[in-house]
Specification:
Length: about 900
């Protein structure tokens, strides 16, 4: 090759068994080999990877990614942090221009568009208008950063979702830089960054804090992973989709247990999976629990690169490098994986997942029965068959007849009072008609998320389902809020060329924006009459969406059941408007002549889908869309933003504020102290997500954040969301642990509440923390398993730090959040194996003392925890501090990774 390379083949020829290593480990090995400097990257790191132990090790390895990917929710605080570091560096006499990204950073604005308008031809324009009105200050910062920070590019709003843009355009496969050729690798500030694994690019989600360190040239350190081989056999059967496949894999890998591990896919099933099918799988790595789900580069990869307008030179470079450097998949490899999990694809059936976890797989044929069970178990309500409901609609449609329900007398109305155990059903009257909403009614149907909108097979499939439904005379139910949010404008191109946009719009699936929308909670408000009906009757309504997450209160705070599924099924369920149905057997509806229409009547064949893709997709669409990707629309072009290298903070801004983390920071770190007389701020259960800790959605005027904004003269209608205000620590610290569904065991009040034990007052978490801060009382959190699962949300750690939390004691931690806690100087501690707060008899009312921090602190050190009850009784135990590497210890000693980086610059 004409480029310099870090040769794996040379290692193989010198007697190392590189051919037995998983491809993902080979890429990590190349990274260490190329970046070896004897200091940050050492011989020990090289030895760990050359002699990779499939059974696992506790040794840490460094990773220096080729680039960083960000979306705006996490990108704004990252830019604020970098800009704050630059400002502090200047105040201390440094040259601010030195504080710049050391590697390329791509920031895609995709998380801010909200579905306020839907179901009309003006929905997109109105949503964009509102997006700019709400986010002008944030966008001004990002537009400044585009010219004020070196090596940072910004993809303006309305261009697409970061992971789909990454897959279709940013990912190179192999990078050329400074005379070298090496694998394209990245870290991203979004947990679904592994989607790019589907095109053979190794990358994963990290916290914004870690990403900022990588931007500034620091290696990302992590424990050398085990690699689970996922063997796929056969091919997806007729009637099933890539979404059915990925939801089935989610269940399998969650049951297997792959947290903190890599997954690598092999088997003859790969030969029939397109890159977009593969990317659908890789996208849901966080839902599997693993760090990456890697697909090695092969002929399918190059075929996709060619069809998405990568240059012939780039494609040839990828082929030549991978074949030369042992990174090309032939299908005949003999790799020694840590363990192997198999899935026979021909066993797949139509599948959904929910109602509040992606791994809770439900076959479509079983959703009706599952709903009834959940309604009874979780909500203590008796299911009533649709046709037997006492408050059934005045009009019973179907068959050849129409049955009218007699108007109730006052006496009858009294007998229809809702019992606690009754299924809820409410009549909604409108100017243009009336209908009934019941438990199980679908109020949101969203074709959303890069998980699926990047895959032409399921998007064209959804369009064909719509086409056939319209031809049969079917229409979406009037109570369903519908939306279509493509992950790139290429999708719109092929849907319009095929004529399927017209059919989708006939069912009110109009394009509402090019962003994440419902998948991240930007569903927008429900129509007021529906929202009132839900609140007044405490109805358990549902959403159906083609997303990747369905945690409680994530999709919409009023929607308690959320089901993940393919875009094709989203359309089908919107036609029937409820989830208490067996879609495989029950009719979706009736045509105008009274004939029942079933799912099979509107489901396209794979040949129909493939033929439409062949006719509708064009290589030049990718060229046209991505040639102007950084230009933005007219709104972006006319947006005024500061220029130059210095950003001037507006003290009156409620969106962008300089962070307080470096205030009064000494040049050298202070000696560590033990944690003494700490009180419990929250005592939480299992599977507490970063959505619980730092919600991204809307909030009301009664919340701590809402009261703060009202005090600043901001009206309720202009609150926007937590996610949009991540550039303002005052809002975010008030929003920490403010999720309306979080359950703190030390108080009976659901939502973001705690107890200030000296006076036994129940207050918001924020107000409780502030009272403890005024007493100089350190705080701890008690939690169960999988603490911090979900999105890679740095404010879940930053907010905890600003509340005064010094330690989190949990049964286990999600990988990214554990790292983020360390990155903010908070100590993650794991209960002894088999123990928990409950098994140790802890109630959360105790005072905690944690010792062992001041003496010989090292990775995985056992610390002593002593809890003193009100009675004076003590509970003592040893627990492992989850400082997993030497660099973790250094970050913790410095009070966080940002402090470490700033001090490094100051000491240069």
């Amino acid at each position: 090759m004409k480029h310099k390379i870090a040769s794996l083949k040379n290692l193989q020829e010198n007697g190392q068994n590189i051919h037995r290593l998983p491809f993902s480990i080979r890429i990590l090995l190349e990274n260490v080999l190329r970046n070896h400097d004897g200091f940050a990257v050492t011989d020990d790191h090289l030895d760990t990877l050359v002699n990779w132990d499939a059974s696992g090790t506790d040794k840490d390895i460094p990773f220096k990614p080729a680039r960083v990917l960000m979306q705006d929710f996490t990108g704004v605080p990252a830019v604020v942090d970098i800009t704050s570091i630059r400002a502090e560096f200047v105040r201390r006499g440094g040259d601010g221009i030195k504080i710049n990204p050391a590697i390329p950073v791509d920031l895609v604005i995709d998380h801010s568009v909200q579905v306020d308008y839907f179901g009309t031809d003006y929905s997109y324009q109105e949503n964009v208008k509102l997006e700019y009105e709400r986010n002008a200050e944030r966008y001004q910062l990002l537009k400044w950063a585009q010219q004020g920070l070196a090596s940072l590019t910004v993809v303006p709003p309305g261009m697409g979702i970061c992971h789909q843009v990454n897959l279709e355009y940013l990912a190179k496969g192999i990078v050329e830089r400074d005379g070298w050729a090496f694998p394209d690798t990245l870290v991203g500030t979004d947990s679904h960054t592994p989607m790019v694994n589907g095109i053979g690019v190794l990358g994963w989600g990290v916290g914004g804090i870690e990403a900022e360190a990588a931007m500034l040239g620091q290696p990302v350190y992590f424990t050398c992973p085990q690699v689970i081989g996922l063997k796929l056999n056969g091919e997806i059967p007729a009637g099933c989709t890539a979404t059915d496949m990925v939801l089935s894999i989610t269940k399998i890998l969650r049951d297997t247990g792959v947290v903190g591990k890599f997954v690598e896919v092999f088997g003859d099933g790969l030969d029939k999976l397109t890159v977009t099918d593969r990317a659908t799988i890789s996208n849901m790595s966080p839902e599997f629990g693993c760090t990456v789900t890697y697909f090695p580069i092969d002929d399918q990869t190059l075929d996709y690169m060619e069809r998405t307008n990568r240059s012939p030179e780039q494609i040839n470079l990828v082929r030549e490098y991978c074949q030369e450097n042992m990174l090309w998949r032939t299908g005949n490899e003999e790799i020694a994986y840590s363990s192997i999990v198999e899935l026979d694809l021909h066993t797949l059936e139509p599948t959904v997942a929910g109602p509040k976890r992606p791994q809770d797989k439900i076959l479509v044929k079983d959703l009706d029965a599952t709903f009834r069970t959940i309604l009874d178990k979780d909500f203590q309500r008796n299911y009533v068959a649709f046709d037997d409901r006492r408050e059934h609609a005045w009009l019973n449609e179907g068959g050849s007849g129409t049955q009218f329900v007699q108007e109730e007398t006052d006496e009858q109305k009294e007998t229809l009072a809702i019992e606690a155990t009754d299924l809820r059903s409410v009549k909604v009257k409108l100017k243009n008609g009336e209908y009934r909403l019941s438990d199980g009614s679908i109020v949101i149907a969203a074709i959303t998320s890069c998980t699926n909108t990047s895959n032409p097979s399921v998007m064209i499939g959804a369009g064909l389902v719509a086409k056939k439904a319209v031809e049969k005379g079917l229409r979406t139910r009037s109570w369903v809020k519908t939306s279509l949010a493509p992950g790139s404008k290429v999708v719109t191109r092929y849907l319009e060329r095929s004529g399927l946009s017209t059919d989708l719009e006939a069912l009110r699936f109009h394009t509402v924006g090019y962003g994440c929308t419902s998948c991240i909670g930007n569903s927008g408000p429900l129509p007021s009459h529906i929202a009132d009906a839900i609140d007044n009757s405490e109805m358990v309504v549902a959403s159906v969406l083609s997303g990747n997450r369905n945690f409680e209160a994530r999709v919409h705070p009023q929607v308690k059941m959320n089901f993940l599924m393919s875009p094709m099924l989203v359309v089908a369920y919107a036609l029937i408007g409820r989830v208490d149905v067996n879609l495989m057997e029950d009719p979706l509806s009736y045509d105008p002549n009274g004939n029942p229409i079933y799912l099979k009547d509107i489901w396209p064949t794979q040949d129909e889908i493939n033929q439409t893709i062949k006719e509708a997709m064009r290589k030049e669409d990718f060229k046209d869309v991505y040639d102007v990707i950084f230009d933005g629309d007219e709104e972006w072009k006319k947006l005024e933003a500061p220029e130059g290298g210095e950003f001037f903070w507006d003290k009156d801004s409620t969106y962008i504020r300089e962070v307080p983390f470096f205030k009064d920071m000494p040049t050298e770190p202070s000696p560590l102290t033990e944690i003494e007389h700490a009180r419990v701020l929250l005592y939480l259960g299992d599977s507490v997500t970063t959505d619980h800790i730092s919600p991204a959605g809307s909030f009301n005027e009664k919340s701590a954040a809402g009261k703060y904004l009202l005090g600043k003269g901001i009206e309720r209608k202009d609150f926007n969301s937590y996610g949009s205000r991540r550039g303002n620590h005052e809002v975010m610290m008030r929003g920490t642990f403010a999720n309306v569904r979080i359950r703190n065991k030390i108080t009976d009040q659901e939502g973001g509440y705690s107890v200030y034990f000296p006076t036994k007052e129940t207050l918001t978490v924020f107000d409780t923390a502030m009272k403890y801060q005024s007493d100089n009382t350190p705080l701890v959190v008690l939690a169960g398993k999988d603490y911090g699962s979900g999105s890679s949300r740095d404010w879940a750690a930053k907010g905890s730090r600003l509340l005064g939390i010094r330690a989190v004691i949990a049964e286990s931690f999600e990988r990214i959040h554990r790292s983020n806690l360390v990155g903010m100087g908070i100590l993650p501690i794991e209960f002894p194996p088999g123990e928990s707060a409950a098994s140790l008899g802890l109630t959360g009312e105790e005072e905690f003392n944690i010792t062992g921090l001041t003496n010989d602190l090292k990775p995985f050190k056992m610390v002593k925890v002593r809890a003193v009850k009100l009675s004076g009784e003590t509970v003592e135990f040893e627990a492992r501090a989850r400082l997993d590497s030497d660099i973790d210890v250094e970050y913790f000693k410095h009070g966080g990774i940002l402090h470490y980086v700033l001090r490094s610059y100051l000491n240069q």
